[in-house]
Amino acid sequence: MALNLLLLGLLINIFVFTADAQSVGVCYGTIANNLPSPRQVVSLYIRNRITRMRIYAPRSDILEALRGTNIELILDVPNVSLENLTNPNLATDWVRNNIVNYPDVSFRYISVGNEVDPNNDVTRQFVRFVLPAMINVQNALEAAGRANQIKVSTATYTGLLKDSYPPSIGVFHVNVADFIRPIITFLVKNGSPMLANIYPYFAHIGPPASPDLPFALFTRTTPAYKDGDRPYFNLFDAMYDAHYAAQSRLGGADVKIVVSESGWPSAGHNSATPGNAGTYYRNLISHVKSSRGTPVRPGKPIETYLFAMFDENDKTGEPTEKNFGVFTPGQVSKYQLSF
Ligand SMILES: *[C@@H]1O[C@H](CO)[C@@H](O)[C@H](O)[C@H]1NC(C)=O
Ligand SMILES: *[C@@H]1O[C@H](CO)[C@@H](O)[C@H](O)[C@H]1NC(C)=O
């Protein structure tokens, strides 16, 4: 009997683990004045069997709503908090207030900063804080006995790459290398993944290059090109492999890349239509959940987080920025996706 129960437990574990390992996540951005409450949002995730979430700052109402749900979470340290976390005591406080105090929330990764970039006028100021903050958060998690389950990383993006075509020549900008190399060393040392925001949409609309729409939407039936003997059928794989090539040059060949954002807007540009967006999300989900992998990393699903859960009406910048949701603020599914 005991043995039977043990076997049953193992089977259930294997089942849950397998189902879980293949789910896509969705980023829960909140730059809007018309979104449902965190409780309603968490319930929308559960009804749609979305088992992973990313949030961009610790918010007690969201963390409360996540208690006991098993939804696995990427929690960001917002850029504006990075400087504080270069102080070990403040990092310990941050980890206690936002992680340790929620033992029934399934934290998966802490993203220390988002798209911090030495070549960007707005985010350059944060560059020198990222690694010290990562180290302090890591130490605080270790002290709290949580460093085995929760991995510390930072979210990069394609803007850090100098070259990405063909993918095998992928390389970081010269001045980015000095920023990212010690971060890669940190990731290797702690068995953490690299997080990367990868948007074929932005590559498609350019500048400089404008890869064709079927390549960006995963609808080509013949390769767009071959890189050596590797055929590329879709731009997502090409961008992913370019990131991989870039980090491999700096000692990160064994660091897994988690796609911490990818999406396509439904309005605000000629290429941003509901039809294109629906095609992109559907094909992205089926691609990353399959074990096709990419030409350089075949045979494995790619852990991926769609951007974003809702259209966000308070976002600034390009008109498309408000239109990345896979749901409307009224909780209507825009593309009937199966996550
Ligand atoms: C990062 O910081 C910049 C500057 O404060 C800000 O514009 C951007 O929205 C921030 N991103 C996140 C996700 O915190
Ligand atoms: C930084 O830390 C100080 C002191 O604990 C706190 O008052 C302040 O709100 C923090 N700033 C941010 C942006 O988190």
Automatic annotation (TrEMBL):
InterPro entries cross-referenced by the UniProt entry: GH, Glyco_hydro_17, Glyco_hydro_17_plant
Gene3D superfamilies, A to Z: Glycosidases (3.20.20.80)
GO BP of this protein: carbohydrate metabolic process
Enzyme Commission identifier(s): 3.2.1.39
Keyword set, alphabetical order: Glycosidase, Hydrolase, Signal
Keyword Disulfide bond in annotation: no
Signal peptide: 1-21
GO molecular function: glucan endo-1,3-beta-D-glucosidase activity
Keyword flag Signal: yes
Family recorded in the similarity comment: Belongs to the glycosyl hydrolase 17 family.
PANTHER family named in the record: GLUCAN ENDO-1,3-BETA-GLUCOSIDASE BG1-RELATED-RELATED
Name of the molecule in the record: Glucan endo-1,3-beta-D-glucosidase
Organism ancestry: Eukaryota, Viridiplantae, Streptophyta, Embryophyta, Tracheophyta
